[in-house]
Design a protein that fits this description.
three-stranded antiparallel sheet; 21% strand; GSP17M-like_dom
């Protein structure tokens, strides 16, 4: 049974829409509330929808930064390679092998970073980080638990929604008619000829 659940991964048998949220924290709060009410939350999924890619520009790319990023990457690669080769070396040769691998990786990384930056031709003179984010979050629940989930989730108190529902304007009622208001307005006397 456990293996079957692992194979299913992120799927539900017959998922049904339970609620939409604009923020992930609100969706998380709703699931937490359902859990507090002893609802079987293992039958719920939070699905991010309306995905968009966000690229945050972190700074300007220069020759110095390109060399620095290349040096850091090369040094890490050299360290990894030096440690692997150092495992098979004599005990006294281990440190010189690791240090020389770091040095070679650093030099190679600087050269490679500068070549890569030169090939951009100035078309991308900035650094950035990219992330895919959702703009809306949907709660899905197994079809057999949909009614229970809606009932329990309706108990989640949201003062802003309750306040606006309590203060919703009603249709204006007509003022009661008084006897004076029911009579037609007085008409002007007919005009006299020659006046």
């Amino acid at each position: 049974m456990a293996q079957q659940q692992q194979r299913q991964g992120f799927t539900l048998e017959y998922p049904q829409h339970l609620a939409f949220f604009d923020q992930y924290a609100d969706a998380q709060r709703a699931v937490d509330y359902l859990s507090d009410q002893k609802f079987p939350v293992e039958n719920i999924m939070i699905v991010g929808t309306d995905l968009k890619q966000v690229e945050r520009v972190t700074g300007r790319m220069t020759w110095g930064k390109a060399a620095g990023y290349g040096a850091a990457t090369g040094a890490w690669f050299g360290l990894l390679l030096g440690l692997i080769v150092g495992i098979f070396a004599e005990p006294g040769d281990w440190l010189p092998i690791v240090l020389s691998a770091i040095l070679f990786g650093l030099v190679f990384g600087v050269i490679w970073g500068l070549i890569g930056y030169a090939f951009t031709g100035g078309r991308r003179d900035f650094t950035s980080v990219t992330q895919v984010v959702a703009t809306r979050y949907e709660l899905l629940v197994e079809h057999k638990l949909l009614a229970d989930g809606q009932r329990v989730l309706a108990g989640l108190h949201n003062p802003a929604v309750q306040g606006s529902a309590a203060q919703s304007p009603q249709a204006p009622q007509a003022a009661p008619q008084t006897p004076e208001a029911q009579q037609p307005p007085p008409q002007a006397p007919p005009a006299q000829p020659g006046a």
